[in-house]
Amino acid sequence: MSIDETLLNKLSEIDSVSGDERAISLSLKSEYEGYADDIVYDNLGSIFAVKKSKQANAPRVMIVGHMDEAGFILKRINENGTIKALALGNIEATSLLGAAVRLKTRNEQIFFGTLIAFDKSGAVLDQSNEVLVDFGFENKAEVLENDLTFGDRIAFANQNRVSSNGKRIFSKNWDGRYAPLMGIEVLRAVQDQEFDFDLYVGCTVQEQVGFRGVQTATNLVKPDLGIIVDTDKAFDYQNDLKEKNGELGKGVLINFYDTTVLPNRLLLRTLKDICSKHNLLYQYYYSMEGSDAAWINKLRVGTPTLFVNVPIRNMNTPSSIMDIRDYDAAKEALLLLLETLTAEKIQEFKEENR
Predict the structure, then answer these.
(1) CATH classification of the domain holding 82
(2) Coiled coil located at which positions (predicted)?
(3) Residue 94: CB partners within 8 Å, gap ≥ 6?
(4) At residue 1, does pLDDT exceed 80?
(5) Structural domains of the chain, count
(6) Which domain holds residue 184?
(7) HSE on the CB side for 99, CA within 13 Å?
(8) What is the pLDDT of residue 158?
(9) What whole-number distance in Å separates Cα of residue 279 and Cα of residue 276?
(10) Which of 98, 108, 192, 226 sits CB 3.0–4.6 Å from 296 for a disulfide?
(11) Which one-letter DSSP state was computed for residue 309?
């Protein structure tokens, strides 16, 4: 397997539901320290490793994705010992009945539980975007004795698995682990390279609840070029498809549209040319959802942006699926892109629409 499976398992064992990303941030910090000239934060918790150029007044390139994952936040303790929790993120309701979850209290004690239906039909997510969780407590007093409290985060329990053919990985939180994993592997790969730009590689917080961290992070970094590493929904197997869009195993996504940003056309062409020249798998993609890229693209005076994404089946469910070949293509394309970047090339991207 080309992915560092040990690193992936380490990252996947850390819960990082939106607003409670400190544990994953600390893990990233320990990884970044060996490859960074500096580590910087915004005041919401987004973290970046900085690889400084020797050039004075060098432009800044920002490689970024989010490290938070979809989950739940405790909002009520019922008399019968069950927990009412509010969903954080766009969670697929049909995936939830019987899903295994875990809660870590503020004194680091972990409780495992499961999501249960709130009515006879088996529905789990109600009209208020809330769920019922059973941690095995018999009554409210027992819950309180164990220090569960309002605001505690509840995450899907981890269940990493590799398919029998070695090509796909099942994980509960690919949408929140692709960027941390990719960032660390990119930093490792370029540790001995010199660039004429300052390279910022990192992760933002609170993407699942409204693209919050990327706004403060962009104001911190002040990038001249933004490269977003994220996941997109795969539409390649459903019975009612009118067209396939994002096929597992077909390569990195050249995402030319989402509802909040139109990526820089010269950057898109550059990524496509790199993939073609080096025989890397790639596929065009469009998204009908928003992304972190919108804020990087439009904050301050504007920044040319590019996605280097991969497709995921079962996004934001207890078990999502990524193809290793897509990840490999995305990583190789990103590394080759960094090799081609110069201050002059970055300026060309900035002037594309002039």
Answers:
(1) 2.40.30.40
(2) none
(3) none
(4) no
(5) 2
(6) 5-69+173-350
(7) 31
(8) 85
(9) 5
(10) 226
(11) B
